[in-house]
Design a protein that fits this description.
CATH architecture: 2-Layer Sandwich
CATH topology: Alpha-D-Glucose-1,6-Bisphosphate, Chain A, domain 4
Shape: globular
Strand content: 35-45%
CATH superfamily: START domain
Number of strands: 7
Distance between the termini: 51 Å
Number of domains: 1
């Protein structure tokens, strides 16, 4: 049995942040900042770069999220694959300048199971809050 894109769901989380796109971009792509709001990783903003995000291990999961950079458009768009717990998905970040800062849009697509979608929704809400906090703390 094959599963089509029509059989999957996407999660979108958007926040307007009172910071310019260049500052948000740094938090999305600089390893030390990324670790402060998301997870430890060996990320580098290079198309084709394979990297691993490291979440706390849980029963039946070592915490590794295998990823690969797909798109880099400095200060505008970042896309990477996200493979963990049997979920193969894509995370797309879009930064849009606004009068007050930047509209930060994260879309993770490819959910086939409701529990994966719900878990991701909970996680990304927390991560976005952490991102806002890290942006407020950095210059």
């Amino acid at each position: 049995m094959t599963t089509s894109a029509a059989d999957t769901r996407s999660l979108v989380v958007e926040r307007e942040m009172p910071h310019p796109p260049e500052k948000v971009w740094r938090a999305l792509t600089e390893r030390d900042l990324l670790e402060r709001w998301l997870m430890k990783s060996d990320f580098a903003p290079v198309v084709g770069k394979r990297f691993t995000l490291h979440a706390p291990p849980m029963p039946n999961w070592d915490g590794a999220i295998d990823c690969e950079v797909r798109v880099i458009e400095a200060n505008k768009r970042l896309s990477y694959t996200w493979n963990a717990l049997g979920l193969e998905s894509v995370v797309d970040w879009t930064l849009t300048p606004t009068k007050g800062g930047t509209l930060v849009r994260m879309e993770q697509s490819g959910f086939r199971q409701e529990n994966h979608y719900q878990g991701a929704n909970y996680g990304w809400q927390n991560f976005m809050g952490n991102l806002g906090r890290v942006l407020a703390e950095t210059t």
